[in-house]
Specification:
Length: 377
């Protein structure tokens, strides 16, 4: 028992580290690992048939309800038109919050497999969002098509593509933002209230409930960072800058002479929406950038902010092993030099400071050795 209870010599740790340095941390490359995780996550998603059926039913019924409620509306009524686009974006984007419980549950598996260096954290996050992309794309196409054509939006291919693309990208952006919130939350009881608050912010500062010109200056940044606001702006500009509304005369009214703008530009000004066409593809570019930022943030927080009980237990075990090594091997600090200068220098040091420094050094050595052994296993 004494042999078993004896701590490992530092030479053994050095040998392990020396040999492990020649072994790659991950067995697969980044892309191979990512594709493996995508395949696994897609399998998990497809097996959850009840969830897929419920989402499909919700999307179809929701699209029919929206389409029949606002059937063939007058697009000259900018308030109603903007409201339909806003409700469509909110329905599809905020609906991604249903993925939070699944991600929180998958996070525990991630912690275990990441400790064993099965894959990189970035591969896990990318694979999770890539597996969710087909569901998001399908929902956007079905729901968006029903709403677009039943509500009587501009019958042109360009605005229709912008409409669908904006819904897809905004849904992906909010889905990735919920990954970040889940990574920062200790458990599901924390993640759900935080996601509710984020949904409120996404909804209120999208530019419809409160127009941009009426948002207080100290809250204006929430409007400009909101993915839903960029989606709403891009879609509505594509509608009112189309050939159907980019005219001067409508119903006997010459908007170019009276308001120095076309019909579409005048209608957009009613809700403080900028009318330049650059906002359309600028909005799409911002949504792509937002997705990348959320993916990077989710990767960072998953890697460095862990709510892992096993990880904490390992750290406590490491500290216990270090303390046991100190008791068994004795104080490894070098002896005090015989010169008077060294004696006077060491005498000035506080015993508590030296003890604290020794403890930190030993704990760091033990943590490094544990990390090396953990990477090998």
């Amino acid at each position: 028992m004494r042999t078993v209870d004896t701590p490992c010599r530092i030479e053994l740790f050095r040998d392990v580290v020396q040999h492990l340095m020649q072994t790659p941390t991950y067995r697969q490359s980044f892309w191979a690992s990512t594709w493996t995780l995508i395949d696994r996550q897609m399998t998990i998603t497809l097996r959850n048939k009840k969830f897929l059926r419920a989402r499909a039913l919700m999307v179809v019924l929701g699209g029919l309800i929206y389409g029949t409620t606002f059937f063939q509306v007058d697009l000259a009524n900018v308030q109603v038109t903007l409201g339909i686009v806003y409700q469509t974006a909110i329905f599809l984007s905020v609906g991604q919050a249903s993925e939070i419980p699944a991600f929180v549950a998958a996070r525990e598996i991630y912690y275990k497999q990441r400790r064993a260096n099965f894959y990189r954290t970035s591969s896990f996050v990318i694979a999770y969002l890539a597996a969710a992309a087909p569901v998001i794309i399908g929902e956007s196409i079905v729901f968006g098509s029903l709403v677009y054509w039943m509500c009587g939006f501009v019958a042109e291919i360009g605005p229709f593509v912008v409409f669908l693309l904006g819904m897809m990208l905004s849904s992906m952006a909010l889905s990735s933002s919920f990954v970040v919130l889940s990574a920062l939350s200790a458990n599901l009881d924390v993640a759900q209230p935080v996601s509710t608050l984020s949904n409120v912010l996404f909804s209120v500062f999208a530019g419809f409930v409160v127009p941009m010109g009426q948002i207080p200056g100290y809250f204006s940044w929430l409007y400009w960072v909101n993915p839903v606001a960029w989606c709403l702006r891009a879609v509505i500009v594509s509608q009112y800058r189309s050939s159907s509304f980019d005219v001067c005369i409508d119903s006997g009214e010459n908007y170019c002479e009276r308001f120095n703008s076309t019909l579409g530009e005048y209608l957009l000004s009613q809700y403080d929406v900028p009318s330049k066409e650059e906002w359309v593809w600028g909005g799409m570019a911002y949504l792509v950038l937002a997705i990348l930022v959320f993916v990077a943030a989710g990767t960072h927080f998953l890697e460095h902010k862990r709510f892992d009980q096993a990880r904490r237990e390992q750290r406590l075990a490491t500290r216990g092993s270090v303390a046991h090594a100190v008791r068994y091997w004795g104080d490894p600090r070098p002896s005090v030099a015989s010169t008077s200068e060294s004696k006077s220098s060491n005498a000035k040091r506080s015993p508590k400071k030296k003890e604290r420094k020794l403890h930190l050094q030993l704990e760091q050595q033990g943590s490094n050795a544990l990390a090396a052994a953990e990477a090998w296993w």
